Structure formats: C-alpha cells, structure tokens
Amino acid sequence: MVAGTLAAATVVATIVALTGAFARSLDPGHYCDTGFSTLINCTLHWSSTTTSQGTPVFAATSGSASATPSDSRDTFRPISTDVTMWAVAHCPRNTIAKRLLCAVPRGAALAPAERDDLAAGLPLPKPWVLRTAKNSPFIESVHVETPLGLADTLGFYRAELTKRGWTENGGAVVEPDRAVIAFTTPDGPALLRLNHQDERTIADLSLRKPAAKNPVTDAGLLPRPGQVKLKLGNATDEAAVITINQQTIELAARAGRDLEHPRETGRKSPDSPEVDLPPGKVKVTLKVASGVAESREFEVAADETWGLLAGPAGVPLPMRLY
Description:
By secondary structure, this protein is mainly β. It has helices spanning 20-26, 95-101, 150-163; strands at 5-17, 42-57, 73-89, 130-135, 139-146, 167-168, 173-175, 178-185, 188-197, 200-208, 228-234, 240-244, 247-251, 274-277, 280-288, 294-300, 304-310, 316-320. Strands 1, 2, 3, 4, 5, 6, 7, 8, 9 and 10 form a ten-stranded antiparallel beta sheet that branches. It has a four-stranded mixed beta sheet with strand order 14-11-17-18, with no helix packed on it. A four-stranded antiparallel beta sheet has the order 13-12-15-16, with no helix packed on it.
C-alpha cells in the first residue's frame, strides 16, 4: 500500500480598486462591479486554497515484473478548493454626493442577474454596498447588503432561483422587514434569509453541501449541538473592538484574518477567537482604532457556523462558513 500525502497551495490577492478603466483592468472578474457609478471605489479581497492528494509514482525497471523506486516522484491531484471573497463599496457619506454616485437605478429590481457571484456561483443582486462569499467543500454562501427594498430583493432571488430549478419548501416566512425561505436543490439544502434595516436589505443565501461527501468533523467548523459558532477575525492593520450581544472582544491587527483553522490539525487558531451563541438575531458593533463605530444585525440558526471580520473602515463582514 502506498500512502499519499496532502499538500495545500494558497493564492491570495487583495485589490484596492481605482476609478475608471484602470480599475476594470485590475478587476477582470468584475468582483467590484457594484451597480453604482464607475467612479465609486471598492476594496476587494480574494483568496483561494487548493488541497491536493499526492501519490508517489514509481518507474518500472526494464525486464522487471515489479516497480522499483528508482525514479520515484510525487504527483498531485486537486481534491478540494476553498475560496473566500469580500468586497466593500465606498459610497460617499455626504448626502448629495451619495445620491449622485450611489443612487439605485430605476428598474434595477426587475433586472435579471447579469452574472452570478463568481466566488460562490450564486445569484447576485445589484447594486450592492457590501458582499462576502464562501465556496468550500462544505458550503456555498453569499452575504449581500443592497439598497434595494426587501420586496424587490425577495422578488429578485425567487426569480433567479426558480431558473436554477430550486424548489421552495413549505413554511416560508415573509414579513415586511424579514423573510426566511428554505429550498430543495439538486445539490443540497439551501436557505435564503432577508432582513431590512438602516435603509438597506441584508441578504444571506447559502447552499450546504452533502456532509457524506465532505465530512466536517476534522475541519474545526462544527458548532455545539443547538448552538451557533461565530469565528472572529480582523482584516485591517489596526486593532479592533467587536461587541456581540453585549460581549466585547478585542482583536489585534490582522488577527484571525483568514477565519480558518490550521489545515493540518483542524484545531482552534490561537489568534482567531470563537464565540458560542444561541440561535436568533446577532447584534454586532465594530470599531477600529481610527474609525467610527459601525453596527449591524443579522440572523443565525442552530447548528450553523459563521465568520465575522473587521473590514475596511471598521465595516462588519459576516460570512457563513457552515
């Protein structure tokens, strides 16, 4: 029996998008295509880790019935890829400039998706002011904050997901400021959550991949039964303070910025704090050293695992991990 070895290769790219054609040349995947004016800047982070299985290859000696390691070498075949992406649009704080550069185009809610989120492969409404995405062996997920109303955002997702052959399950909850809909898909169970707050709709769409194919017991992702695991990180070069449901945690600059456990052990990373939460709404306040406090509220359910990054200018970046 020949034992294989595991190897992981990571590619990380961080882009601060400029304006105009030069910005588009730096972002050929259109990750920073916000749907607003092309004068709006966007901060983008994209990383990809590929894990490969290595197997020694032995060359057979001429005239011999068996292979010998005289010309042994390792060949590797990819077995999984893990992509993490987040992007933040920098709309002006000035009210007049914001209306000019970050206005919602008329008819935007009725327009079909020009392209899916390229990291997770899920429908992407536009315009958006913030988005995160995860595509791992365990889940495809996208978190979007859009100035579209909840009804318009819900209509967008229902139309796009129907095109994919997704079927709504019974028991959907649709309220003026909140919606929760479960779907049956050919690739696994999916869930859409929408919440409207502070003149924007927060959308979380996720598709959990079959656990039988992708066991998570050694990945450090499983929450306690009936609980929610929240992994914290800081993607900035400044210290950050995060308050979660009245619990305050300090994070050093760039601490836990990948929201991942060491792949060789799956154990908890010492610089990436974790918090166990009950299911329900999570109230988050985030402040980096040089910025103002930013607050968000998003919804989580039992047996889910989430990440929360301190983003540029202290913007909270939620991301569903499992």
